[in-house]
Amino acid sequence: MMNQTIQTQLNHKTIRKFKDTALDQATINTLVDVAQHTSTSSFLQGMSIISVTDKAKKKAIADIGK
């Protein structure tokens, strides 16, 4: 069975291009709040958020994740 919603999901892709600009705390707080609300309205979505600000560590993580 194929419909517009399924086709949209199948066509979805994520392109990650990051800027070399730090996020302000208000933006970080909003993103954490969104992550907590994702999938359920009961704050039951499991998540982990790791903040990395050291450029060498960021590069090492990027190299691992390709």
Order of helices and strands: HHH
CA-atom Rg in angstroms: 16 Å
Helix fraction bin: 40-55%
What is the strand tally?
0
SS strand fraction: under 5%
Mean pLDDT: 84
Q: Judging from the principal axes of the Cα atoms, what is the shape?
A: extended
End-to-end Cα distance: 35 Å
| Low-pLDDT stretches | none
Sheet with most strands? none
**Tally of helical runs:** 3
Structural class: mainly alpha
Question: What is this structure, in a nutshell?
Answer:
The protein is mainly alpha-helical and about 70 residues long. It has three helices and no strands.
Overall description:
It is extended and about 50 Å long. The longest helix is centred in the middle third of the chain and has 13 residues, at 25-37. By secondary structure, the protein is mainly alpha-helical. 48% of the residues lie in helices and 0% in strands. It starts with a helix and ends with a helix. 0% of the residues are buried.
Observed structural traits:
extended, single chain, mainly alpha, 66 residues
List the helices and strands and how they pair.
Layout: H1 4-11, H2 25-37, H3 55-65
